Structure formats: structure tokens, C-alpha cells
Amino acid sequence: MNKADLSKKPAQVSAMFDEVAAKYDRTNNILSAGNALLWRVATVNALEPHPGDKVLDLAAGTGTSSAAIAREGATVVAADFSPGMIAVGQKKYGHLNRVSFVEADATELPFADDEFDSTTISFGLRNVVRPRAALEEMLRVTRPGGRIVICEFSTPANPAMRTAYDLYLNKVMPVLTKVVSSNPASYEYLNDSIHAWPNQRTLASWLREAGWTDVRYRNLTGGIVALHRATKPFPAAE
């Protein structure tokens, strides 16, 4: 079984996700105690997709979030660098006219400048070897005035919540993954990557440094997850 490490070598991470693809959605629902659905709803609401919009769903995995966005009338490009995830996604959602799947590297997106009305990434930025480069690429492919929405694991604001969450990650989740996951070792990486990931304010600063404006975030489930939003500015008038 493949387990990536925090060097986040793209081929290694991709292979790890290939191995968990078949049971990925079921495992996430169990490990999140059903909160995965609530986080997805919050992400789609923050994205505010409109009929006719073209949305990039980066690190889309099996396309579950892409399908939710498409239900609002938008056309969605579900991009992921794991062929295994894309294969599962195409089986589940390939019949949807407004969802298409593309294999892509988040740091070198195969799309034109200003191509999308908005971009989003859920629980994927943490797995990118150069996350700030991905934020810059997402800015490049988003039209001026367009929005980015990031849903990612973060740092609980309350110390008691942090303690309880650490206990869950370190003691409870390893037991669960042995039962429900096709690759329990990969969830050791999940634990490591969550602990290594920066807090809400740091990610907000990365967005500003990448060129995004109107950067805001709000905590979900006490800060276990944070929802970041920002806007691509219009070019300065000459």
C-alpha cells in the first residue's frame, strides 16, 4: 500500500489517491461523521454558481463536489492529478452534461488565462507540493471579478476543541480507517498533513500574496475546517 509523505512528491501522492479512489467518498463520510456533506453545501453556497458559469473544481477527486456545483446550472471542469480518482468520477458522473473530467497539475494548469468564472478546491490544496503556486495558477485562470473558494482542514479556535480533535486524529481515526479504507496507511498521511498545514490567517496571507483581494474566511465545525473566499481584482486602469 502506498503512503505519501510530507515531501508531497506528485507521483507519490497521485499513486496514493489512486489506491483509495474506489472507497474514497464512503470513507470520507464515515471519518467526518457526516460533516463532509455539510462542508460541501457550505462550499457551493460560498461559490454562488449561476446558470451559465464555467467553474474549475480543482483536486475534484471523484467529482462529488463538481456534481453539486453543476446542479446549480454551472458548467464544471473537474480537474485532478490522480487518474484513479478521475476514473471513478467518470463512472459516477460522466453522464452529466455539465461536468467534464481533466487530469491536471494544480501548479501548471492546462487552461487559458481568465477562462473560468470561479475556481474552487476542497481538501486538495494541502496535498499540493507548491500550494502558493497553485493559488497563483488559480488566479491566472479566473476572470477578473471572479471568485475563489477553498475548503480545507484548519486549526480549531478553541483549545479544548483542538485537544479533542487531536485525540480523534491520533487515536480514533486510525482504528476506523483499518475497517473502512482500502489503504489505511494513506490516512496516516492525512493526519500528518493536517498537523503540518498552516492556520487560517496564514492561508489568508498566502491568498493576498498570490494577488487575490477581498480575502475572508469563516470556520466550519469549530475550525476543524475553514472556508476561505477571495476575488480576482480587475486590471488597474491605465
Automatic annotation (TrEMBL):
**Pathway membership, UniProt:** Quinol/quinone metabolism; menaquinone biosynthesis; menaquinol from 1,4-dihydroxy-2-naphthoate: step 2/2
**Which InterPro entries does the UniProt entry name for this protein?**
SAM-dependent_MTases_sf (IPR029063), UbiE/COQ5_MeTrFase (IPR004033), UbiE/COQ5_MeTrFase_CS (IPR023576)
- Stated EC number for the protein is 2.1.1.163
List the catalytic activities from the record: a 2-demethylmenaquinol + S-adenosyl-L-methionine = a menaquinol + S-adenosyl-L-homocysteine + H(+)
Q: Which GO terms describe its molecular function?
A: demethylmenaquinone methyltransferase activity
Listed binding positions for S-adenosyl-L-methionine are: 62, 80, 105-106, 122
GO aspect biological process, one term: methylation
The main enzyme category here is transferase
Ordered alphabetically, the record's keywords are: Menaquinone biosynthesis, Methyltransferase, S-adenosyl-L-methionine, Transferase
Residue intervals passing through the bilayer? none
Q: Does the keyword Coiled coil apply?
A: no
Q: Name one Pfam family in it.
A: Ubie_methyltran
Q: Which family does it belong to?
A: Belongs to the class I-like SAM-binding methyltransferase superfamily. MenG/UbiE family.
UniProt cross-references to PANTHER family, sorted A to Z: 2-METHOXY-6-POLYPRENYL-1,4-BENZOQUINOL METHYLASE, MITOCHONDRIAL, METHYLTRANSFERASE
Q: What does this chain do?
A: Methyltransferase required for the conversion of demethylmenaquinol (DMKH2) to menaquinol (MKH2).
Name the chain's protein.
Demethylmenaquinone methyltransferase
